[in-house]
């Protein structure tokens, strides 16, 4: 079976490599996003298999060929980035090696828990059953997803992880649920690895600029003073978030559940799309990770849509858009009302968001069109909504004990480190907290208005549905900690620089 | 920054402890036994039923869901008794000498008239 798992990983990584490079360029995150891109291709193949006749293998090969042809086109036509200085190149290489080595080491250590051959309840009832449907070909998949006997199996759940398990069955040569569970655990680790890379890349923009200007002190600081400690802390905290992910998920990280996978992918999407500087590759990474979250579990879809919407707003800022509109209006000698400009701005944002959301929302749309409905909203809530909401809030608070710490860190940091955050070109912390708030409210609404008995529902799922907000909290704390260290070192360096910049006589006098 | 680092140290230690608990020999042996039982039941179903048989596993319950899972993909579970050619039963027993015995459980298939 181990040979089959290795072969399956190769079958994910090899076809996923060029699309991964097309998405995130020369970033170190390619190492960990490569299998995730391969998994996305499997999900697309499974969706095609459901809609059109043909086996999973046939659609997989078609998807591999088409996606790689498209990716090669993107890579070939991409503009080359200016080559960094030899010193920066050496630093970037060493940083990349450090990130990959530390994330892999810690990830492998947590994956050693796989020696306990755990198989979760939902793993058998949902994910492995769906994998068998996909493995069986178009007719089997279509018939089984409409079969009332599988009503307990949440038939509308997205196909990403089942399709990877189906691929593992192909690699092993028979249906082996254990291979599917191991593949799921490996993908969980990869998704957390991508999020960890995102945090480790927080100081990247600062490294790429020649010198850092600390706006609060107005002193130009030598980059080398801050480079190593800041980058080292960023790597350590990235790895710490990875460890936190495994800890929060507990046995769900290794027993074939999908919750850690979507939560880690969505966290990565937030980091790359809403925290790191606005760059084309960061937006593309966020898009790929949002799509992964949406195609992994139903909870991932609303989060992915929110993240994509916020990315569209962040990447098409009002100031730049209105400036461009005014310039073009002046050149055309036409009068453009501000309301019209505003409407056009929002039309553009919505169009971009809608296009980005298509792959992620495709499965939900197809499932709805084919009449595969979920069981959570089959009827109204079986009790008073207020009691359900109260029970949900009580349970949620058990999983948000880090929230007060995060709020303290946020308030202090927002007061003291705002300028440093701007210097790093990072997105405002409000983006991340918006995602957090919207998700928690959506979850509250789902539990309150859903049709399942609330106490049983909370008992069986709240531990898993709260992984994502906790990961977001840890991510925000990690980013502020990196900025805090930079500010601390910058203050020391700036005073040293101030002395050095003065005439020799004055220094002697001091 | 001190608060942030303290928070991460605590979470990392907690994560490591959780991971270590999952590797305990008792956990490994318990799950190995559960998997052996599952594999045994899957195997016995292939002996009890012909391939692609339409099988009814009973009204929705924990046991019927288990039988639906274990009989897939060997057989084709149906949601109605009238559509099934066979009915599967999961029986709890301690008689290890019975046919299709799997660590306290056994499966029985009966043709639906």
What does this structure look like?
The complex is a heterodimer of chains A (510) and B (113). Chain A is mainly alpha-helical. Chain A has one domain. Chain A has helices spanning 2-24, 30-51, 56-77, 86-111, 121-135, 138-146, 160-172, 177-200, 204-208, 223-249, 259-275, 280-296, 300-315, 318-332, 338-369, 385-398, 403-416, 418-423, 429-449, 454-465, 467-501, 504-509, and strands at residues 212-214, 219-221. A two-stranded antiparallel sheet of chain A has the order 1-2. In chain A, strand 1 (212-214) and strand 2 (219-221) form a beta hairpin. With 113 residues, chain B is an alpha/beta fold. Chain B has one domain. In chain B, 49% of the residues lie in helices and 19% in strands. Chain B has helices at 2-22, 25-48, 62-71, and strands at 54-56, 76-78, 86-92, 101-102, 105-111. In chain B, strand 1, helix 3 and strand 2 form a beta-alpha-beta unit.
Break the fold down into its secondary structure elements and pairings:
The complex is a heterodimer of chains A (510) and B (113).
Chain A: H1 2-24, H2 30-51, H3 56-77, H4 86-111, H5 121-135, H6 138-146, H7 160-172, H8 177-200, H9 204-208, E1 212-214, E2 219-221, H10 223-249, H11 259-275, H12 280-296, H13 300-315, H14 318-332, H15 338-369, H16 385-398, H17 403-416, H18 418-423, H19 429-449, H20 454-465, H21 467-501, H22 504-509
Antiparallel strand pairs in A: 1-2
Helix pairs in contact in A: 1-2, 1-3, 1-7, 1-8, 2-3, 2-7, 2-8, 2-12, 4-8, 4-10, 5-6, 5-7, 7-8, 8-10, 8-11, 10-21, 11-12, 11-13, 11-19, 11-21, 12-13, 12-15, 13-15, 13-19, 14-15, 16-19, 16-20, 17-21, 19-21
Chain B: H1 2-22, H2 25-48, E1 54-56, H3 62-71, E2 76-78, E3 86-92, E4 101-102, E5 105-111
Parallel strand pairs in B: 1-2, 1-3
Antiparallel strand pairs in B: 3-5, 4-5
């Amino acid at each position: 079976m181990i040979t089959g798992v290795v072969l399956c990983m190769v079958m994910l990584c090899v076809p996923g490599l060029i699309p991964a490079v097309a998405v995130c360029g020369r970033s170190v995150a390619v190492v960990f996003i490569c299998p995730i891109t391969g998994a996305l291709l499997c999900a697309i193949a499974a969706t095609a298999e459901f809609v059109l006749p043909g086996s999973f293998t046939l659609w997989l090969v078609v998807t591999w060929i088409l996606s790689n042809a498209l990716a090669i086109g993107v890579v070939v036509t991409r503009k080359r980035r200016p080559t960094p200085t030899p010193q920066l190149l050496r630093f970037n290489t060493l940083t990349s090696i450090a990130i990959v080595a530390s994330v892999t080491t810690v990830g492998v250590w947590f994956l050693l828990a796989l020696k306990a051959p755990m198989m979760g309840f939902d793993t058998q009832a949902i994910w492995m059953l769906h994998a068998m449907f996909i493995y069986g070909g178009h007719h089997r998949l279509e018939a089984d997803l409409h079969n009332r006997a599988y009503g307990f199996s949440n038939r509308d759940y997205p196909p990403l992880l089942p399709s990877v398990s189906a691929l593992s069955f192909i690699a092993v040569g028979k249906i082996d649920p254990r291979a599917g569970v191991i593949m799921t655990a490996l993908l969980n680790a990869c998704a957390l690895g991508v999020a960890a890379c995102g945090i480790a890349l927080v100081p990247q923009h600062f490294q790429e600029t020649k010198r850092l200007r600390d706006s609060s002190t107005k002193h130009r600081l030598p980059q080398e003073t801050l480079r190593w400690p800041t980058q080292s802390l960023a790597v350590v905290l990235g790895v710490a978030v990875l460890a936190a992910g495994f800890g929060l998920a507990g046995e769900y990280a290794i027993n074939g559940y999908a919750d850690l996978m979507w939560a880690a992918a969505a966290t990565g999407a937030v980091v790359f799309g809403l925290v790191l500087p606005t760059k084309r590759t960061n937006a593309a990474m966020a898009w790929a990770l949002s799509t992964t979250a949406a195609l992994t579990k139903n909870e991932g879809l609303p989060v992915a849509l929110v993240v994509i919407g916020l990315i569209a707003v962040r990447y098409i800022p009002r100031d730049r858009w209105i400036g461009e509109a005014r310039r073009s209006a002046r050149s055309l000698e036409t009068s453009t009302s501000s309301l019209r400009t505003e409407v056009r701005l929002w039309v553009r944002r919505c169009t971009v968001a809608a296009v980005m959301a298509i792959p992620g929302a495709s499965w939900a749309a197809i499932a709805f069109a084919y009449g595969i409905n979920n069981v959570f909203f089959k009827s109204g809530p079986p009790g008073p909504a207020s009691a359900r909401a109260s029970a949900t809030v009580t349970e949620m608070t058990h999983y948000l004990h880090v929230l007060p710490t995060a709020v303290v860190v946020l308030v202090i940091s927002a007061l003291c480190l705002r300028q440093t955050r701007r210097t790093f070109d990072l997105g405002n912390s409000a983006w991340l907290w918006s995602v957090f708030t919207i998700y928690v409210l959506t979850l509250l609404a789902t539990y309150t208005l859903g049709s399942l008995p609330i106490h049983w529902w909370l008992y069986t799922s709240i531990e898993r549905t709260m992984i994502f907000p906790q990961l977001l909290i840890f991510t925000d704390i990690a980013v502020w900690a990196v900025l805090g260290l930079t500010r601390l070192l910058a203050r020391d360096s700036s005073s040293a620089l101030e002395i050095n910049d003065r005439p020799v006589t004055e220094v002697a006098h001091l | 920054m001190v608060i942030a680092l303290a928070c991460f140290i605590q979470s990392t230690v907690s994560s490591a402890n959780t991971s270590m608990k999952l590797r305990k020999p008792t956990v490994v042996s318990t799950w190995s036994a559960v998997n052996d039982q599952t594999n045994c039941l899957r195997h016995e179903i292939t002996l009890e039923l012909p391939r692609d048989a339409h099988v009814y596993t009973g009204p929705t319950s924990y046991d019927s869901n288990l039988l639906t899972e274990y009989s897939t993909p060997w057989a084709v579970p149906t949601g109605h008794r009238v559509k099934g050619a066979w009915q599967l039963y999961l029986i709890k027993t301690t008689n290890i000498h019975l046919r299709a015995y799997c660590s306290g459980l056994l499966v029985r298939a009966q043709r639906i008239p």
